[in-house]
Amino acid sequence: MESNVARHKMLDSARLVAGAKIQNVYEQFNSVVASFGQQHGFEILFGTASNFVVYGAKGKADKTRDLLRYMGVKDE
Known about the structure:
By secondary structure, the chain is α+β, with helices and mostly antiparallel strands. It has one domain (about 1-70). Helices cover about 60% and strands about 15% of the residues. Strand 1 (about 45-50) and strand 2 (about 50-55) form a beta hairpin. The longest helix is centred in the N-terminal third of the chain and has 38 residues, at about 1-40. It starts with a helix and ends in a 6-residue tail after the last helix. The model has no long low-confidence stretch (mean pLDDT about 75).
């Protein structure tokens, strides 16, 4: 029984650490996307929320490739 309690505490701790790290990634991503949108004059909502990516462009064209280039991701 004690080993089960210890195991659950360890798993909870790991979840908290992982959650904090992914939150940091979300915040960095949101910041980069906001900067990209401002520099290119886009009226967009593009960011993360609750473990999924949310975006919208008010009918404008898909800018995924431009964003990836801006983030330093090379086209394959």
